[in-house]
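Hey, can you fold this one?
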Amino acid sequence: MKKNKIVVVGGGYAGIKVIQKLAKNPHNEIILLDKNPYHYMQTEVYELIANEEDFAQVTLDLFTYCMGFKNNNVTFYKQEVKNIDFTNRKIITTVDRISYDYLVLSVGARTKFATNVEGLREYAYGIKALHRAMYFKQKFEMSLFKKVDESGTSCKPLSIVIAGAGLSGVEIAAQMASFAKEFYKNNNFLCRKLNIVLVNAAEKILRGMDDILVDKSIKRLVDLGVVIKNKQKVVALTKNSVTLSSGENIFMDFMIFAGGIEPNGLIYELDLQKNERGFLQIKPTLQVLEYERVFAVGDCASLYDKESNILAPTADIAEQMGELCADNISLDQKGEKLQEHNIKSRGILIALGRRYATAKVFGVYINGYFAYVMKKMIEKIYAIQLDRHSCVGCKY
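Sure. Predicted structure:
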């Protein structure tokens, strides 16, 4: 029996879930392509930056992961995809041309550095990519050390600006404020000043999220000493300052930019329909509009609910898309009708500093330490499952 050749481009949350389900069928031959040799667990980046975890704990080796499937039908190639010939079903990478029967695009998104903001790309740090998060983590540690080293002679506060008050911006602001507070306290340093400014273009942080969670998050941030500047935008940066749309100029040691995302570069090269923000347009079955055997999942595609609202690009939504994509490929292989999505958020958990979170899970609100434990359990269960699978691959 001829095997179905399925190529998955991108080893993020959605791509991993597609592979997990499709690999159970021994008649599927699956190839995973990614320019990076690791799966990056972005939901834990706030802990990476604040020294709760190291980079090994937020990554998964894709080589050993793909070797761990019992049907021995998954292969990983560390190759960057440059373009795709949809007519002839060929993927063009930097070193090869790979054919496919089914194609899954799951390349994710990257930080969008607005070109009209002077100095943004030169002086701001994004955290969507692991190497950028690692670089910022080192910058944060060295800045803390520098302030400690100056203690007793001068005590200038460490000043951090975070542009963008979505989930990533809020979690990072809270975690850094909480970490620095405990760092100074536990080490009895004389100089304990830390200024964190969260710049938010909307009227409130966490736009579009549940009002109760928003209010809980605002209270926690204020308690941690984070300054929130609503209805403001960053309009210019220099090495040591940020200018806001109000005209205010803020001194800063460094800035994190979490103000928006755009599809990864490959998507711009593909002759497929996209929305006004550049993300792929897909059917409710997760197929792209032009080709029945090409699917798009995760942050590179825009998914709408029944009221035509875009679903937030979270790991939860990405995993659900991956599951449905795998199911629909299996249905198509059998000549059966594909399922339309009914995907919705199963819950939201917001980390707000060490040992504190706020959450809404299946309609129930949870706050404080218990919500933090729940978030950590979900993250750890996910990581442990992947790690155990990779351990099987290490034996080969």
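The two ends are 26 Å apart (CA to CA). Let me know if you want another pass with a different chain boundary.
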